[in-house]
Write a structure and sequence with these properties.
Blueprint: E1 4-10, H1 17-26, E2 34-39, H2 45-52, E3 55-59, H3 65-78, E4 83-86, H4 98-106, E5 112-116, H5 127-144, E6 156-159, H6 160-165, H7 175-185, E7 190-194, H8 201-206, H9 210-226
Parallel strand pairs: 1-2, 1-4, 2-3, 5-7
Antiparallel strand pairs: 4-6, 5-6
Length: about 230
């Protein structure tokens, strides 16, 4: 199997990060290739991830998910990663599905695989969340020119070539739209893959509120057209 690195951006995830790392290790991914980026947490995220056996990097301050993913990707590329996977720290993603999301890259069918909860019948998406996400699909099509079924799913995979060509500059949640913009701009071959999203009280507390999604959209419009 190609050398796969899994990058996890984590902020105050002491309750879930150990289970996430252990779940990935159980599927055969070595701890040295599971890269947890502690994004300035003020709890025990760093210690719990380290205790679980992951490679742990740390930001001195909370910079945002995009910045944490960029740090993890840079580290992975430096250490000869052939495939890089983005995986959430809150337990929403299924470690068993990593093999599914990297398969199109292994088969050379795509250089980016984007997870979609709407292609899986196992994801029971709450109604308000579903509405916000579907609005995001339309927003992304209008402003990026790519029609996807799920535009803000943090479960995604990149070939080395794609990871070298997708430079995340947005520190916060806008990075998700930036990645899609770059896929379009650089004509990178992509596929959507069905993935399961598990909604728990913890993950819903950590997730984006509808109001924050509107703020993110406003910042994207400002960055693209008004700055």
């Amino acid at each position: 199997m190609q050398k796969t690195f899994i990058v996890i951006a984590a902020y105050n995830e002491e309750r879930s990060i150990s289970d996430v790392v252990h779940g990935l290790k159980k599927e055969g991914y070595h701890g040295r290739n599971i890269i947890v980026v502690d994004d300035g947490s003020n709890d025990n995220t760093f210690k719990e991830a380290q205790k679980a056996g992951a490679t742990v990097l740390k930001h001195a301050i909370n910079r945002g998910q995009g910045a944490a993913l960029r740090t993890g990707m840079d580290y992975s590329l430096k250490h000869k990663a052939e495939i890089i996977v983005h995986f959430d720290a809150d337990g929403q993603h299924n470690p068993k599905e990593v093999k599914d999301i990297i398969q199109p890259i292994i088969n050379k069918e795509a250089d980016v695989a984007l997870g979609s909860r709407f292609l899986s019948k196992k994801s029971d998406v709450p109604l308000i969340k579903r509405i916000v996400l579907k609005m995001g699909v339309v927003f992304t099509f209008i402003f990026s020119g790519i029609w996807l079924t799920d535009t803000h799913n943090g479960f995604r995979a990149f070939s080395r070539k794609a990871a070298e060509n997708i430079e995340i500059t947005q520190d916060k949640m806008e990075h998700a739209s930036e990645i899609i913009d770059l896929i379009k701009l650089k004509n990178i071959k992509y596929r959507e893959i069905p993935v399961t999203i598990k909604y728990t009280k913890h993950s819903m507390e950590k997730g984006q509120s509808p109001l924050n999604s509107i703020r993110i959209a406003a910042r994207l419009i400002w960055t693209k057209f008004l700055r």
